From TrEMBL, chains A, B:
NADP(+) binds at K83, L84, P85, N86, I87, S88, N136, G584, S585, H589, R600, W601, D602, R649. The record marks K255, Y420 as: Critical for catalysis. Its cofactor is Mg(2+); Mn(2+). InterPro entries: Isocitrate_DH_NADP_mono. It comes from the Bacteria. GO terms for biological process: glyoxylate cycle; tricarboxylic acid cycle. Belongs to the monomeric-type IDH family. Coiled coil: none annotated. GO terms for molecular function: isocitrate dehydrogenase (NADP+) activity; metal ion binding. This is Isocitrate dehydrogenase [NADP]. Its EC number is 1.1.1.42. Substrate binds at S133, A134, V135, N136, P137, V138, L139, R140.
Amino acid sequence: MSTRSKITYTFTDEAPALATYSLLPIVKAFAASADIDVETRDISLAGRIIASFADQLDSSQPVEDELAQLAVLATSPDANIIKLPNISASVPQLKGAIAELQAQGFAVPDFPEDPQTDAEKEVRARYSKVLGSAVNPVLREGNSDRRAPAAVKAYARKHPHSMGKWSMASQSHADYMRGGDFFSSEQSFTMPQAGDVRIEFVGKDGKVELKKQLSLKEGEVFDGMFMSCNKLRAFFEKTLQDCKETGVMWSLHVKATMMKVSHPIVFGHAVSVYYKDVFEKHGALFEELGVNPNNGLSSVYDKIKSLPASQQEEILHDIHEVYSHRPEMAMVDSVKGITNLHIPSDVIVDASMPAMIRNSGQMWGRDGKQKDTKAVMPESTYARIYQEMINFCKTNGAFDPTTMGSVPNVGLMAQKAEEYGSHDKTFEMKADGIMRVVLADGTVKIQHEVEAGDIWRACQTKDAPIRDWVKLAVTRARQSGTPAVFWLDPERAHDRQLKLKVDAYLQEHDLNGLDIRVMDYNEAIRFSMERMIRGKDTISVTGNVLRDYLTDLFPIMELGTSAKMLSIVPLMAGGGMYETGAGGSAPKHVQQLIEENHLRWDSLGEFLALAVSLEETGIKTDNRKAKLLGTTLDAATGKLLDNNKSPSRKTGELDNRGSHFYLALYWAEALATQSEDAALRERFSKLASTLAEQEATIVAELNAVQGSPVDIGGYYRSNPELTSQVMRPSNTFNAAIDALIQG
Amino acid sequence: MSTRSKITYTFTDEAPALATYSLLPIVKAFAASADIDVETRDISLAGRIIASFADQLDSSQPVEDELAQLAVLATSPDANIIKLPNISASVPQLKGAIAELQAQGFAVPDFPEDPQTDAEKEVRARYSKVLGSAVNPVLREGNSDRRAPAAVKAYARKHPHSMGKWSMASQSHADYMRGGDFFSSEQSFTMPQAGDVRIEFVGKDGKVELKKQLSLKEGEVFDGMFMSCNKLRAFFEKTLQDCKETGVMWSLHVKATMMKVSHPIVFGHAVSVYYKDVFEKHGALFEELGVNPNNGLSSVYDKIKSLPASQQEEILHDIHEVYSHRPEMAMVDSVKGITNLHIPSDVIVDASMPAMIRNSGQMWGRDGKQKDTKAVMPESTYARIYQEMINFCKTNGAFDPTTMGSVPNVGLMAQKAEEYGSHDKTFEMKADGIMRVVLADGTVKIQHEVEAGDIWRACQTKDAPIRDWVKLAVTRARQSGTPAVFWLDPERAHDRQLKLKVDAYLQEHDLNGLDIRVMDYNEAIRFSMERMIRGKDTISVTGNVLRDYLTDLFPIMELGTSAKMLSIVPLMAGGGMYETGAGGSAPKHVQQLIEENHLRWDSLGEFLALAVSLEETGIKTDNRKAKLLGTTLDAATGKLLDNNKSPSRKTGELDNRGSHFYLALYWAEALATQSEDAALRERFSKLASTLAEQEATIVAELNAVQGSPVDIGGYYRSNPELTSQVMRPSNTFNAAIDALIQG
């Protein structure tokens, strides 16, 4: 007999959180029948802000740091976590959330843009932990296994998403720095034994400043690298001149959310180079006003509001003038005049580049028309893969979702591996000098001559995750019978260190009959694409950044979205975390719900994750009912896809809530018709027939509420009662689910 | 002691033949000092025409078939042949030569365009053997070893040729058929034992027509393939529409000279598709006039001359009308209005594509300006490598001659290997039906369903040349310490057969320490280019077509010309043939000589070939003097390059003849200062000092004649006395050389 077990379901933000109000009651009711409790943990942006200032709040207000609790759980063998997408907050988003919480009566402090006093610095430090990608690095105590579920792939082949045609004469391309960036300066070493390292800055005067001290483990790989500010700015200027000459539109693609320290600076340079005339002319004033280009041109608009109208007009006029001699810039929203440089979180490389490639290599111009584009991505390390894919599409045409193979990913991610854990080791140089990494015994392992403005960063990659990653790659290659390619560039110092470990750890496994290769990034993506257009699958085994990029890039080509991917984090401690796809255009979804009471969010990712989670629970706790819940949920998901019961984008048609109803119906039917467990069959037969009989009524009730605005009491922290009412509008359906719990 | 030995120097056409009048006396004089006779063999187009009709000529006229004699020599171990570039005659060229010979009193018959009587067919058959690439296939009784000599590479690094900048936004590309071409229909098999095969056409009525019977050797690889006429024409139309839409210029790149049966047909379809309106409207008239689109638009201009002026005007007007709705076409000569489609021999893919790539991916438009271009190359088999290089240049910029590595070639060529020996097995289908290849026992080995107009061809590749090719690749890899890549595409039936042999024959060699790989064409060129931009060399080991294409492509990037390559044919019988680079723009050179008495032809290829030839003679006949002549000639060539004594393009400056003088001077000096052979030292000391003393006089004499027109008595067959006088205008220099012979 199995004992009660637990699945932890995360409560996050925006559309996924709204959907949770509808889906979770169903899931809880079904899971209870297998003695599984489904508990929630609030890791929303609002929740994390509140938890950060728990000591300063009214004692009646919720204060638990549920993210910290989850992080502890992730290191336990019992962990079984369903992780929904959450906000990686940019500064503007953070400020929005703070304002909303303050309005709701939470005494959280303002965000100090330019902290001066110790108190302000303390507040800023707390908020820094909330900024950007603050959740995943904490929870991801395992590497990443992402793939297209068979049902989803089959559906995509039958119902292919639209793919823009590619012209061989397309002018679009990805442009990147040739020297002067992180790639060309990377140095790397492996710790022969555990010990401390110091990151130091040595000034021109010889004075040594300790930037950071760290304790490294044995076998840990440590990298140092920097991007030259002067070369970065010269590069931006060159790309602008080039676009001006060739008539190709200019666009910028960085990841200011995830790379929350280095990329906002890169983004800021793009802003101040593009609008050079404005920043030069009004430099002193902007300084005074606290304009920060790293927050985008919106920072200018924002800060100049305090100025007299005539002065505002002059600045707006000067901004407008810039457009007359700068090349056309890609727009985020051409109707509202929101450019690529408006705020740093609008264009995120791993989503924006696949979108561009899917769209014939084009982005949208000021006139709302799509145009060939120079995609500017300063970091050459990763930008090259996009240029390779663009060249491939020019030569071979757009990918064909009806025939193409798949590129699943095994990604090195655990314990904040590589660049994605570099934020606390990233520094913008205040002066010329030397940055160096020194061992406890004084040995200098890494040394760079830097100039003021350069961005220096260090990355850590622990040995145990690497070993686990190699094991996961071999396991996946074996289970899927698919070639696996380690993407390691012999021209990168870091990858050379990794290659040594990969070679060694591969020897720990039976490789007989497996096709496991090591290729540089260009070779690897080309090899994978050549196979892909011939219908063949290839596992990409990559570092952390490529994991993130590729698990958007390939799924968006194959499936039209990355949200439909199965995303498993086999935790190193033995537990499992099941992630449910990307946030995508979640903000627009919330807006549509509030304005028209229609939620187009597709919970497919949750369905897929939940099925694996239930199966794993069943296996680990020897709970056959749980396994059965998992396999029947998979069957129900397949049927949902086949019957086209995913949410429509159009108000008045089936939305997220209706889709959940059909999932419940199909899931109940699958349980009612299985022959493995009589108790479950009986329990769900009643629900299945009730739901089938009431289908028309329920769908009518669900659709009837659509079309009018609703109030959910907040964006970042909506009112739970109001939201639940909005998200569960069918009394008939609610009653059926409630009856299951009681029954 | 060595006995007298012999070097056979070919007498060819155009500029190389003119240069021979100046260079050969020098070479003979130097070689005599090592007991080497230098004899000539006339393999010029005119000579070959005359030999073909020897039976019909005045008995006093020269009649020996020197090409046939040379072919016999090539299969002897004593062969030591210096092979200069010769004309691969197109029909217009052939007709020009015939007219000239007739005017000179040779009773050679007219070229029968449309032979009807048996006599006409007999004449046509004789001329067919003269057409196109008729010399190399006969002489090339060995595979090919081509590389950039160290001195030439060093010179190119010090004095880089111009390279057009590449823009990442370039719209240029290579476009090719996706299905319906030779690539997609290729079938291949290997003869398990010697035997006959029949190539048969089976009509819709079941009637079997024998197209060709052949005796194959054991181990011979035999391929059949076809290009669909309908798909080819649809492809051309699509490329034209695409250019019209994208504004990219249209250009065609085939090799109608070498691929003398299949490519003129392909070219003809391009003409009749581009000028579709004209050919449709005037179809019946054109038929009557004997217009043949395979000869280019010039055929229309030519044939309509017999029409009344008003009718001519109408046709010319209709041709002009075409340009208003077809895309702009690349020009061969924009001043004279000569387009890509004027005559089939103007644009030859292996020269035109490197020129385009070197020129920023652009060709010249009607207005004389360079523009982004669609390079149309129907055969996808080989076109893909150009698209790969174009993508590479878009991404990485133009190649840099000062730093780039080299891609030498080991090419499978002997005994008319592959497509280059397919001319007698190429058929344009007259009706729908089946083409098949049948063994003597009736087994059908290859079968294709074809339609009227399709181009079907078979290729042979004998086993011994393949084995020799593998051996040569291993030898070159060993001697040069360079990785060698076999370019074999697993998606090609022919290459799969070759791969089996390569794998087997590699086992016959010691591969220890060698880096020998097999890659498909895209992989191979990409691998080679990635190494090249990092300064590394990579041997390309390829089939016959790629040999031809790559030994222009890479040298033109590396050295600015392929004429400076060392091109050795280690003959399978044990002899050696030393080829001296490409013809290039030889016709323009002759024109300049006749109009301005300046010959810009660079004999560097002859110098390099001669040095290897002398060294080989020395080794084979144990003639130390010969070896010394070789090494000193190499030193002289290096000095010539260093001192910039190559011919200038400008009339009035040092030309081919002056360059020969400096070669003689430096060669004599090298011999006069060596310490290995006292006799030679003494013999050449006098010449060295004479030439050094008379340098100013000789150069003045050589330059003084320039600027006025000269008469050499013919283009295809110039008058030997007149030409010799023109090419040896310095009495001082002539006297010094004569003195050496006597001396």
